[in-house]
Design goal:
It is a single chain. The protein is an alpha/beta fold and 515 residues long. Helix content is 53%, strand content 8%. The strands form three sheets. The protein has a five-stranded parallel β-sheet with strand order 2-5-8-1-9, sandwiched between helices. A two-stranded antiparallel ribbon has the order 3-4. Helix 16 packs across helix 18 and helix 20 runs antiparallel to helix 21. The chain is elongated and about 120 Å long. About 7% of the residues have low confidence.
């Protein structure tokens, strides 16, 4: 067996020798070349070409094999981290180039002929509008059309869509006749019946009360829950009910900054990239109907990145300060309601974000939740029969007046306020959390609005405490605090009455099961 193995190695050596030893093969060819025919010379050439190709292939294969054997190896985890870092660097480089182009565009614009603060030709300083006239430019529609300049060809403006909006409200829009003889309770009931009879969307009456009362409390509403429960359909139905269609903005995973919402000026095309979000805000300045802007799947990107500026603007105490910067330089043919490069955010706009909590989305930061009213839609209401219900034509001014009236007529009782303070002290001691001033302000505003919508005070407190206070427990390691949660549930029964805080208790039980 050993001799056979040696013979095999020798045979392989001879094969390689005959394959690679070209001098020996050339000697053999010279010895027999006189007896070669033409065909044999051709065959000899072909064989040599094949052998050379085979040698090259073997060398390449051997080189790759040696490189795989002797290359520096890293763990798969480390390799994935390096790949991720490279991708992040590439994305940051693209973003930096994009920002550089924008800065260059702004510098070029500032050097142009239309510098900020310049007056139109033929107008001196005495003819410039006063502050009172500027305020009047945002009064109801019947006064506004007389103050606007003549129509401008949208193709001549860098804001095509916004200029088209101007032209429509200058020449075609007719202000509706608003209804002003209903209460918030009637409004919620009619909204529910309209959604069921016209849109075949079914919601509990309490859900309608939560939604409408949230409008009187905050400008941002978050609808969260499993898919198919009607998160997007609820604000959509509201738009149909008040006859002012809701604007739906589909959030994209790549959104990282403000320009995704407001657009940007393209220096190459000399046009402004207008978004649906910008158009909705701008157009809302022309009418007084309540308008919903849906940020669909808002946490598929990080909300605190692209929506941070809006969060800060809506926190300003004076609505006159609710303005978003659009351009740095104002041109003569810019849209009428762009003042000094800014667009005002009117008080007839509410922002509704829909959230799915799964592996494909990001966690929403506390600063977003703190400024919003979150509502959970975890199940669909049963279908029911009802009479056909007409939509309404509602003025935001009248709706806001109803909210203000509710806060005067149904303030939160001192008894409930004292109980909330006791709960606050308990949470501080047991969980090291506390109510913030913003949360207490929202509770005091939500409770009266919910009562005016037809609910009770304890229902309102139960809901708002669960959504604004107990939600903060998700940041704790409550898996190790199940006994404390049980004690807290019993404490709520003792403080507010047995099973009065049902939403809070259900939420506590959910926390105990999921952690």
């Amino acid at each position: 067996m050993f001799r056979a193995f040696v013979d095999m190695l020798v045979a392989m050596g001879n094969f390689l020798n005959y394959l690679l030893n070209f001098p020996m093969r050339m000697d053999i060819i010279k010895e027999y070349e006189e007896s070669f025919s033409t065909l044999e010379w051709v065959m000899l050439l072909i064989v040599n070409i094949i052998l050379i190709a085979l040698i090259i292939i073997l060398c390449i294969g051997l080189f790759k094999l040696l490189r795989k054997i002797f290359r520096v190896r890293i763990s798969p985890k480390k390799y994935d981290e390096l790949v991720k870092q490279v991708r992040n660097l590439q994305r940051d480089l693209i973003r930096a180039n994009y920002e550089k182009d924008k800065l260059l565009a702004m510098k070029v614009t500032e050097l142009g002929d239309h510098a900020p603060g310049t007056l139109p030709e033929g107008m001196d300083e005495e003819e410039t509008p006063s502050e009172d006239e500027n305020d009047e430019a945002f009064t109801p529609n019947e006064n506004r059309n007389t103050l606007l300049s003549p129509c401008v060809d949208p193709s001549e403006s860098r804001f095509f869509r916004l200029t088209s909006v101007d032209n429509f409200y200058k020449s075609e829009y007719i202000a509706p006749v608003y209804e002003e003889d209903f209460t918030l309770a009637e409004f919620c009931e009619r909204f529910r019946l309209f959604a069921a009879s016209r849109l075949h969307l079914y919601y509990d009456l309490d859900m309608m009360r939560y939604f409408v009362a949230s409008m009187g409390t905050a400008r941002i509403i978050i609808l969260q829950g499993i898919s198919g429960t009607g998160k997007t359909s609820l604000p959509y139905a509201f738009g149909k009910f008040v006859q002012k269609d809701t604007t739906v903005v589909s959030v994209q995973p790549s959104w990282r900054e403000r320009t995704e919402l407001y657009g940007y000026y393209n220096e190459f095309t000399k046009k402004y990239g207008e978004t649906d979000f910008l158009r909705a805000i701008y157009e809302s300045n022309y009418y007084r109907d309540p308008h919903m802007v849906i940020l669909d799947e808002m946490n598929i990107a990080r909300v605190e990145y692209y929506f941070a500026e809006m969060l800060s603007i809506l926190e300003m105490p004076l609505q006159e300060e609710w303005k978003v910067d659009i351009v740095t330089a104002v041109w003569d043919n810019d849209p009428c309601l762009i003042e000094n490069g800014t667009v005002r955010i009117p008080n007839n706009v509410w922002f509704v974000g829909t959230i799915n909590n799964d592996d494909s989305t990001f966690a929403v930061a506390d600063k977003v939740y703190d400024r919003a009213i979150p509502i959970d839609l975890d199940s669909r209401a049963d279908a029911f029969e009802c009479e056909d219900t007409e939509p309404m034509c509602v003025s935001t001014d009248y709706l806001n007046a109803l909210f203000a009236k509710a806060k005067e007529e149904y303030p939160m009782s001192e008894e409930i306020a004292e109980k909330l303070e006791v709960v606050n002290q308990y949470i501080i001691k047991a969980f090291r959390l506390a109510f913030g001033n913003r949360v207490m302000k929202q509770i005091r505003e939500f409770v009266p609005c919910f009562i005016a919508c037809g609910g009770t005070e304890i229902q309102a407190v139960d809901f708002i405490v669960a959504k604004k206070v107990l939600r903060k427990f998700e940041s704790l390691s409550v898996g190790f605090m199940k006994d404390e949660l049980t004690k807290f549930s019993n404490f709520l029964d003792k403080t507010f009455g047995k099973n009065q805080m049902k939403v809070c208790k259900d939420y506590i039980e959910l926390l105990k099961k999921t952690n």
